[in-house]
Specification:
single chain; 150 residues; alpha+beta; three-stranded antiparallel beta sheet; rod-shaped; transmembrane; TadE-like domain-containing protein; membrane
């Protein structure tokens, strides 16, 4: 038995396989992390573009004389997100439109905030970390609106 043990210690033929087996989970985690980061960046750009498209929609509709509601603006955001152009999951896409006090006569000011949680590839990452939040103000011409003085 003593003669077998020293020969196993000197044998290096399986060392590469053992080292690869030890580093393989780290390499896979790094690969999945790179994919998740790229996917997150694509979704961030999609959310940003949806916000801009919805703001443009609201401005054009107001210029046409269609006094759209906050709910119809949020519905437009949902429709764009689920559409073929962006294909974001509707269940995790949450648009919110709120009125803001305006500082300029004749301008209705809204705030569009969107929260989106993309699907995850790595189950050990907290989904709250991946949540994308983006918002912008929308300014609509409305002659009946008076500015709020501080």
């Amino acid at each position: 038995m003593r003669a077998v043990f020293p020969s196993l210690i000197r044998d290096r033929s399986g060392a590469s396989l053992v080292e690869f087996a030890m580093i393989f989970p780290v390499l896979i985690s790094m690969l999945l992390g790179a994919v998740q980061t790229g996917f997150w960046m694509q979704n961030y750009n999609a959310v940003r573009n949806i916000t801009n498209d919805v703001a443009r929609f609201a401005m054009v509709e107001y210029q046409r004389g269609n006094k759209i509601t906050n709910d119809s603006i949020a519905t437009k955001a949902d429709t764009l997100a689920a559409g073929a152009k962006y294909q974001l999951g509707a269940g995790t896409f949450v648009p919110k439109v709120t009125d803001k006090p305006t500082q300029v006569d004749g301008v209705r000011q809204l705030r569009l905030d969107i929260a989106y949680t993309p699907p995850e590839f790595m189950p050990f990452v907290d989904p709250a970390i991946l949540t994308i939040r983006y918002g912008r103000d929308i300014y609509l011409y409305d002659a009946n609106v008076k500015a709020v003085t501080p």
